[in-house]
Amino acid sequence: KPLDRPAIALGLQSNFMSLQYNQRLSYGVLYSSADQMVLLENDTISSVIHNSPSAWVVEFYSSFCGHCHAFAPTWKKLAKMAKDWKQLIHVAAIDCAEERNLATCVHYQIEGYPSVKFFNASAPSSNLGKTFTGERTLLGIIHEMVKVAELQKTLGLIRTDLDFVPIRKEFVSSFVEGKTSYDELALIFEVPTSYIGREVMLDMMKCPGLGVRRVLSRNKFLVEKYAIKKFPSLIVVHRRGTFKELSHDEKTHASYKKSLEELCLGVKPSVELPEITEAMTLYKRLHGKAEKRKQEAGSSSEVYMQDLESGLSFMLNVEVATKPIIQGDEYLALRNFIGMLAKCFPGRPSLGQVLNNLHAKLPLTRTNIFRSEYLYNVQRSQANVKLDGGSNAHPLPKKVKWAACSGSKPEYRGYPCSLWTLFHTLTVNCGSSHQLTGLDVLSRIREFIRYFFSCEECRKHFTAMSSNLSNEVHSHNEAILWLWRGHNKVNDRLAGDQSEDPKHPKIQFPSKDLCEECRVPGSDDHNVQWNEAVVLEFLKNHYGVDNIRIKKPPARSAPELEDTDIVSKHSKRHSVSHLSIIGLSSIDASMCLILYSAIAFAVIALYIYFIRRRRRIVRLHVHTP
């Protein structure tokens, strides 16, 4: 049964949900239908993983998350390694950055990406899965999958002939005497802590004529009988009792699997569950074109208001809203960050009013707020706020669209790029007039990242990097330079990473083309020496309010996308026009002024006309005989 969003969104009241942000997102796909995994959506996840005849391991990821990009090759290898284990356990993935999947990921209590959850076979719809907390390495997750597969057998959740219990000498005798259904018997000798035997047993479930069993190193009788010298070792026993060792130099899972597949005379056909077939059909229909889609990459050297506003929209409506309840230090971090935005964000007055409204709905007298109330407040903060043309609209764009932060593919850049741009803009524009020190600005950024940036590894790196701010930053200028240095450190670490856009390689910013004077003459790209005094002035200009570009949308675009207010130094304080308060737009005011001037001119003209006419009458009267 497909998940019903209002029903799963952690008890949100329907009136709140009706106001919930309906963001039309479509990020890039990290996985394709060619990968050996089931790709889930909001409409298919429940019918696939709940009340299933097999166990499931599901990756909840976000396609904008850099660490998810780095983790994707591991998940693909995992799915490929476990492709023959489907009778006991399946591999799946779901993209939480997709608008249609947001409520689903909240339902499963996903607060960071990537998150891996295990679901037992026959798990009811109320089961939210067990989060994997071990090392997210290929072997770490494979070993956990083996444990879960073994548990399904132990609990009787899955009927299978597979038996993970190590054998005794009697089992070999039964095989030689023809008392088993196997044509040949493979024995994997291993130490008790080894996983290779169980892994190969799962691989070879597809070969009913080939028995694969474990023998522990402490079974002295069988170890001596087959002259085992090293562990692990692979022995194949024939019906006549003769045997042959297949493990010589290479004693790995892959080599054992390859050797046994050559002995497999008949492969049992696998039948895909109809729910899985339906899920993959839907995925291909939704993403078939996206897998091949390319888009025009933005110019990363520019600062666009479109990127800043789209980033704010995604941040406030999606990232913050992943938590069922925001409480304690999280609440304070959110309140402080939105308060800083209200003071320093160099945007349109209408958006400034929204940020002020939202900040007012997070009073210091409280220590927590539920997700439902928070989302309601985000919507209410935008109610009755008029844009420059006088029309009611959501000042936060409903459709996230990137300009300079647009990657060469949808999965590149995007939100993380906009976040860095926002942070640089805040360090530059939060001057002393806003009563925030440079340390205040960076501390509020750090705490927001700590609690509300969903990419787990990125969050850890940033909070670790900023752990000593109080000793490193003592002024606004130092704050601007600290964030610039930190960003370049991140760029250096991620250069060549899976998350890097090939059309936008990670460089040391600013480039030589953008600011040649910022670099000490003679320094190369691999060991840049900076003239920090020049860099500081460059950053102030680059991220200053006068350099933020207003990209005009097409004439027929939605009102919420229209950048009708000019970004200027006057907009930094977000002063709300008195005309808007009384319901007049600037166009109305201009018309009134023109009309008033016309009336005044007409009155003056009539006055002059009557004065002259009167004087003429007086003259005629005086000269009349």
From TrEMBL:
BP term (GO), one: protein folding
Reactions catalysed, as given in the entry: 2 R'C(R)SH + O2 = R'C(R)S-S(R)CR' + H2O2
Leading EC class: oxidoreductase
GO molecular function, one term: protein disulfide isomerase activity
Keywords, alphabetical: Disulfide bond, FAD, Flavoprotein, Glycoprotein, Membrane, Oxidoreductase, Signal, Transmembrane, Transmembrane helix
Signal peptide: none
EC number: 1.8.3.2
Domain Thioredoxin residues, every copy: 19-153
Any one cellular-component term (Gene Ontology): Golgi membrane
Cofactor or coenzyme needed: FAD
Record keyword Lyase present: no
Domain (ERV/ALR sulfhydryl oxidase) ranges: 408-508
Gene3D superfamilies: ERV/ALR sulfhydryl oxidase domain (1.20.120.310), Glutaredoxin (3.40.30.10), QSOX sulfhydryl oxidase domain (1.20.120.1960)
Stretches that traverse the bilayer: 593-611
SUPFAM superfamilies: FAD-dependent thiol oxidase, Thioredoxin-like
Function (record text): Catalyzes the oxidation of sulfhydryl groups in peptide and protein thiols to disulfides with the reduction of oxygen to hydrogen peroxide.
Family, per entry: Belongs to the quiescin-sulfhydryl oxidase (QSOX) family.
Protein name: Sulfhydryl oxidase
